[in-house]
Amino acid sequence: MRLVFPCLSATLAVGLALLAVSVRLPAQQSGSALPSATVHFPESSKPQFMVAAAEPPSQQPSANPKPVQNPAAQGSSSSQAPSAQSPAAAKSPHDIAEAQMKEQKKQRVVGILPAFNVSYRSDASSLTVSQKMRLAFRSSTDPVSFATAFLTAGYHEGMHDDIGFPWGIKGYGERSGAAYLDGFDGTMIGKGILPSILHQDPRYFRLGHGSTTHRLLYALAANVVCKHDDTGKWEPNYSNVLGNIASGGISNLYYPPSSSGISHTFTKGFIMTAEGSFGGIFQEFWPDISRKFLHRDPTQGLDARLSATGQAERAK
């Protein structure tokens, strides 16, 4: 635990420093040389709305022309045309975000660990308040979250941490409940409530290109910076940091007096923030590991298309 504060301090310093010196780059530019001391955060302008372009009617006469309908029949068919064409005409930002969120809910590392708050799309559409809350609740109530709490409780009991809890089955149950509530509170506040109030995107936007050092620094910094919903610009991630500290404060209600207090509040908040930084590193490189060793692409071809676009731009 003594290593947490140096790691967190370094993470916060790196994130804020890199935010100050970051240079705007389009998400598709992956081949530019990167200074060793600078991390470029891919800026996304307005979310790209997927509008389906209707194919123009063929100008060649049909081999089997259809008989001309009477005006009444034409009127009935034309009245049905808008309902048949409207779904293909355009999608609203809400519908696009909903479809992308459904994709995220299927993302799991090794088919087990949830990666619901990770976006492989740098131009993903902003989430609404309802979508942020539903995504946070889905993440915090996943069966893996409960399993993680049980494993965490076993670890702390084995290491004789949080001595205020009793020993044995009763203590293990209390530790498990406390571990789960820590994660639940942090996720709901830092990924749902505060992002909704501050208009910040709670997701980790995977970079997916560039040098290993560049991506490593980006993953560390992305835990303390985030995108604004309206502008798409990067800014300090108040939601995540304050959410973790708030979770630490709430935990004083169910931790033993010997393990609670101001020190406990900030220690819990710092630990959760540091864990998020290392989690971002894993999520950044997991698709590369999966493709190399498991021959599966978690990005569903997005990385390949991004690489092809970058190569095409460099060839011009």
Helical content stands at: 55-70%
Average of the residue pLDDT scores: 79
Shape: globular
| Low-confidence parts | 1-12, 14-37, 45-88
> Which class of secondary structure composition applies to the elements?
mainly alpha
Count of separate structural domains: 1
Number of helices: 10
Keywords:
56% helix, globular, 10 helices, single chain, 316 residues, disordered N terminus, mainly alpha, two-stranded parallel sheet
Describe this structure in words.
With 316 residues, the protein is mainly alpha-helical. The chain has one domain. It is 56% helix and 6% strand. It contains ten helices and eight strands. It has a two-stranded parallel sheet with strand order 1-2. A two-stranded antiparallel ribbon has the order 3-4. α1 crosses α7. The longest helix is centred in the last third of the chain and has 33 residues. The N and C termini lie far apart (52 Å). The N terminus is likely disordered.
Q: Helix and strand layout, with pairings?
A:
Blueprint: H1 4-21, E1 25-26, E2 42-43, H2 71-89, H3 93-104, E3 108-109, E4 113-114, E5 118-119, H4 129-140, H5 143-158, H6 169-198, E6 204-205, H7 212-221, E7 225-227, E8 234-236, H8 238-250, H9 262-294, H10 302-315
Parallel strand pairs: 1-2, 5-6
Antiparallel strand pairs: 3-4, 7-8
Helix pairs in contact: 1-7, 1-9, 4-6, 5-6, 6-8, 7-9, 8-9
